[in-house]
Design a protein that fits this description.
With 172 residues, the chain is of the alpha+beta class. 48% of the residues lie in helices and 17% in strands. It has one domain. The protein is built from five helices and four strands. The chain has a four-stranded antiparallel β-sheet with strand order 1-4-3-2. β2 and β3 form a beta hairpin.
Amino acid sequence: MNKISIGFVIFSSFYLHAFTSTEEASKIMMPFKKEMMKTLKTSIKSDGIKGAVKTCHLKAPEITSSYRSEVVAIGRTSLKYRNKNNKPEKWMIPILSEYESSKNKEPRIVHVGKDSYYVEPIYVKGLCLNCHGKLSGSIKEAITTSYPHDKAQNYKVGDFRGLFWMRSVNSN
């Protein structure tokens, strides 16, 4: 069993019912966030920033897919997305705009139709600037090659970057 499969088994065992609070949803989301960060840091350490761009391009969608099932979907989105597969759905746009303008750091649960969504804001940290700050040279080239329609540059520490989101399908 590979690492991604193990991550999903852990995630699935956590997720036995619809989340009812932000605290519960945050705990369910944690293995996904940890796996994404561990993959990034491991790649930076072994391949440098340029190599990490390629790893993120290939592994982030794979990791995200491994945390999806019939009862839960999980992902990331932003108004300034890098990967077109992370483009926000219509219902996400007002929430993204609100977080961006208010600098609210509190996660919350929102209801869209029969589904409940947990949304957690992402704010830029120092490590993020390697690929999301002011880019030049080989890093900019690597990002342009992997993400030709990239909108996720020129951030500063503390800027609102986007959302982690998780959907719980209501079985009623």
